[in-house]
Prior knowledge:
Elements: E1 5-9, E2 15-17, E3 21-23, E4 26-31, E5 41-43, E6 47-49, E7 52-58, E8 75-83, E9 88-92, E10 98-103, E11 108-114, E12 123-128, E13 131-137, E14 140-147, E15 150-156
Parallel strand pairs: 1-4, 2-5, 3-6, 4-7
Antiparallel strand pairs: 7-11, 8-11, 9-10, 9-12, 12-15, 13-14
Amino acid sequence: MSGGTIVIDAGGDGFDSNGSATVTGGTIVVNGPTTNGNGAIDVNGDFLVSDAVLVAAGSLGMAETPDASSAQATLHLGFDSMVAAGTLVRVQAPDGTNVATFVAAKPFQSLVVSTPAIEAGVAYEVLTGGAVEGTSLGGLYVDPVYSPGTVIGTVTAGTR
Length: 160
């Protein structure tokens, strides 16, 4: 994929490649699956991401992320239990800048976020609840107006 927008509503595997996959631009939003036998991302070979936005919410059992050798860093949030569909999750930089503001259409336990703005080794704050206004693209808010919810922890970005 080298641009454009893909929104996936997955009952089985979401973004799925039986070989390698390279994303060099655009936006991918995945909602689902909800069962551990499948994953929001299922790439059997190398999975490289650069200059793109990837948000994938699904089950935790088969969760995958882009490779560490990708040009941009990735955050992987694993929750202790399923998060209800419709729950607002915000990931923000230490200065409060939006990284991703997302409302999943389905229950999820794994959330993968990769954008050019994420820096490897930096701890990002994760919040749930609050309120959001703006344009939603498959649950991912573009330029959101956000009223803070509750900080539930931090997640450190993986290496590039």
